[in-house]
Amino acid sequence: MGYYDGMKALVYADKEKMEIRDVPKPAIGPDDILMKVKSVGICGTDLHIYRGGLDIPRGTIPGHEFSGIVTEVGKKVTNVQKGDRAVAEHVVSCGKCDYCKMGKPNLCGHSKIIGLHLSGALAKYVRVPANLVYPFPNSMTFDEAALIEPLSIALYAAREAGFLLDKRIAVLGQGPIGLLLDQVLAAAGALVTGIDVRPNTLAFAKKMGWAHHTINSRLQNLRARMKEIKSADGFDMVFEAVGIEKTAELAFDITRRDGNVYLLGVFSAPVRINMMNIIKKELNIHGSWTCAFSFPDSIDLVARKKVDLKSLITHTYPFANAVTAFKEANSYTHNRLKTIIKL
Ligand SMILES: [Zn+2]
Ligand SMILES: [Zn+2]
Question: Any idea what the Cα angle at residue 303 is, between residues 302 and 308, rounded to 5°?
Fold first, then answer.
């Protein structure tokens, strides 16, 4: 006791500059656990941090999609044990405000995010409040488990949409979140059409059976394709998982009258929208922000083989190459779906 206990961590040093540094090993409180990190996924938010777009303090440790082994538990912790293979949610809400009490902790105004405001998982160890930690079965790998977080985002949004059997649904954007939405919606009985401009990702979604139909909105005549797949009037529901003006506009265009639009894409700039499109079609517009109460069911879906996470992992790097991982994930996007850093 008392001696300096350090660990290696990847930190945001400056715009497009990550560094592996020695930092103190986190100390836990009575309600926390310490996790020895095994796998961390890199997502668009992490790349946004990397590019300097989120204005976070220099020295911050990113990483919010992670899995590992519980190595220490606080005095009051009862839900997990030392040695558990576990994942953790990354939105630390206050638990006291109206939103937290209403069952919308993802909308808590006092929340702090692990990997943004709190030290993230791109380190040997990460401290997490125990109430956000969930063990997962041995049948799942640590790499797969690191993708429980993005799966939970998709599952949460799909659930907000309610009963999905036989609904004709379009998913705009066939990146990792879009492909996870395809899988969750299809598992719930919806007829899924994946839309993107990249032929490879569309072919992949079709080949895996995650999307029943695909449309390349750049190379194909959208209206003609919609007619072919018996959705000439528009889709019952559209999920937007890109976050740019073109796809937002497209979402409102291809939804049928009185249909539902779910917006998940993280927009980095305001967009111009033809509001009359929404008004005259009486569209129902829903925002969907992170997730709540979705981790246990996401783990269950993967354990029961209803969702395939493994096939989304296209690139893995050892922690020693974490700086390269960020550089390459940011610039070499071709045929890249999910990047994982292994510790
Ligand atoms: Zn993420
Ligand atoms: Zn709260």
Answer: 30
pLDDT given at position 127: 98
Q: What is the mean pLDDT of each run of 10 residues along the chain (343 residues)?
A: 78 96 96 98 94 90 98 97 97 96 95 95 98 97 98 97 96 97 97 97 97 97 94 96 96 98 93 95 96 96 97 97 97 90 97
Alpha-carbon distance 164 to 184, whole Å? 10
- H or E segment at 153? helix 148-160
Among 313, 311, 309, 315, CA closest to 327 = 315
Q: Give the whole-angstrom CA distance, residue 123 versus residue 68.
A: 11
Task: For residue 106, report the distance from its CA to the centre of ligand 2, in Å.
Answer: 8
What pLDDT does residue 54 have? Answer: 84
Q: What is the pLDDT of residue 268?
A: 86
Q: How far apart are CA 31 and CA 130, in angstroms?
A: 6
CATH number of the domain residue 335 falls in: 3.90.180.10
Alpha carbon distances (Å) from 322 to 20, 159, 297, 300: 8, 34, 30, 30
47 Cα–ligand 2 center, Å: 27
Domain count, the chain: 2
Distance in Å, CA 133 to ligand 2 centroid: 18
Ligand 2 center from residue 26 Cα (angstroms): 24
Give the range of the structural domain holding residue 32, as residue numbers without chain letter. Answer: 6-147+309-342
* pTM metric for this prediction: 0.95
Neighbours of 220 (CB within 10 A): 15
Structure confidence at residue 1 (pLDDT)? 45
Tokens of 181: 């939405």
